[in-house]
Specification:
- One of its GO terms (cellular component) is T cell receptor complex.
- By secondary structure, this protein is mainly alpha-helical.
- The chain has 1 helix and no strands.
- The longest helix is centred in the middle third of the chain and has 45 residues.
C-alpha cells in the first residue's frame, strides 16, 4: 500500500513538473515571438 501511495505521489509530482515545464516553454516561445514582432515593427517605423 505504501509503495502504491509513493508511486502515485511521484507520478503526480512528475506530471505537475512536466506541465510546469511545458507552460514555461510555451510562454517563452510566445514572449520571443511578440518581442521579435515588436522589434520588427519598431525597426520598420524608424526607417
Amino acid at each position: 500500500d505504501a509503495l502504491l501511495l509513493q508511486l502515485t505521489n511521484t507520478s503526480a509530482y512528475y506530471m505537475y513538473l512536466l506541465l510546469l515545464v511545458k507552460s514555461v516553454v510555451y510562454f517563452a516561445i510566445i514572449a520571443f515571438c511578440l518581442l521579435r514582432r515588436t522589434a520588427v515593427c519598431c525597426n520598420g517605423e524608424r526607417s
